[in-house]
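F.,

This is the one I mentioned.
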């Protein structure tokens, strides 16, 4: 929350979506033939410290960087009658294809928290049909089981996360209702007691799901990720306060030919800071893994 990374020379570009909406993406260019695509977490953006720190280390080591913003997260509300969600891989796919068309030989995807779930789901859904330029994927602190993740957010010791997320998301729900009157019953907002309530009444209907259960099933990376056909690194911290044990796929990863699970003792949720270094441990680890994947 207190780490600051300033001075990145991001170049912003806006690209159109097929449904007459837009995505704002931020570039760091070195003229490299290697690209890393960074995807942020829930209510994050391209300038959050974990995104900026990862962008900086790749940029300084000769990679081009594409840090993109999910709809409604770039500082301007999106136009369509939708926003974004944990299982939204269509926009990620659009961004990836856009980056590939720039002529890169090797593309590595890296996501954080929600962005990690999106990255893992995308690689799993694509499977053997993943673009040939994609050489690997990386996810940190990914809530791969959304139903279990929603339940753990309701614990009293996670009230800071729950209140923070609900505060910002509720503001956006009100704006979306102004754009499209009748989309929601805003009288339900004060009645939200659990995270599942919010997903049942707002997240699911806004994004075309029948209910919260349908949303959790279709959005959770654990239901898709094991079909990945490129090297994938998933890093989860033992002391992550908002990841339940269902998000640590130890049994699958032991025998999976492509997915490697690393569990650290410390790191919290997308933290992984290390004393005396300008770079988080996660940033150094990601750079090493991406280098191995890119060859």
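My design for it:
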């Amino acid at each position: 929350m207190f780490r600051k990374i300033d001075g990145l020379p991001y170049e912003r570009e806006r690209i159109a979506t097929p449904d007459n909406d837009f995505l704002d993406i931020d570039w760091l260019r070195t003229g490299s033939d290697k690209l890393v695509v960074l995807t942020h977490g829930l209510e994050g953006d391209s300038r959050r410290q974990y995104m900026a720190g990862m962008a900086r280390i790749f940029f300084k080591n000769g990679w081009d960087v594409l840090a993109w913003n999910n709809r409604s997260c770039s500082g301007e509300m999106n136009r369509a009658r939708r926003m974004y969600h944990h299982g939204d891989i269509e926009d990620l796919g659009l961004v990836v294809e856009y980056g590939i068309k720039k002529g890169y030989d090797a593309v590595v995807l890296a996501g954080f928290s929600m962005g990690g779930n999106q990255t893992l789901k995308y690689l799993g859904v694509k499977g053997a049909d993943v673009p040939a330029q994609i050489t690997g994927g990386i996810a940190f602190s990914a809530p791969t089981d959304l139903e279990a993740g929603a339940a753990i957010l309701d614990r009293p010791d996670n009230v800071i996360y729950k209140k923070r997320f609900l505060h910002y998301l509720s503001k956006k729900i009100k704006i979306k209702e102004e754009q499209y009157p009748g989309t929601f019953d805003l009288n339900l907002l004060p009645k939200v007691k659990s995270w599942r309530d919010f997903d049942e009444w707002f997240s699911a209907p806004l994004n075309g799901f029948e209910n919260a259960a349908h949303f959790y099933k279709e959005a959770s990376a654990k239901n898709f990720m094991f079909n990945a056909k490129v090297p994938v690194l998933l890093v989860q911290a033992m002391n992550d306060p908002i990841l339940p044990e269902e998000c640590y796929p130890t049994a699958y990863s032991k025998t999976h030919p492509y997915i490697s699970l690393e569990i650290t003792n410390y790191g919290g949720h997308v933290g992984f800071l290390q004393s005396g270094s300008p770079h988080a441990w996660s940033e150094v680890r990601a750079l090493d893994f991406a280098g191995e994947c890119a060859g």
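The mean pLDDT is 96.

Talk soon.
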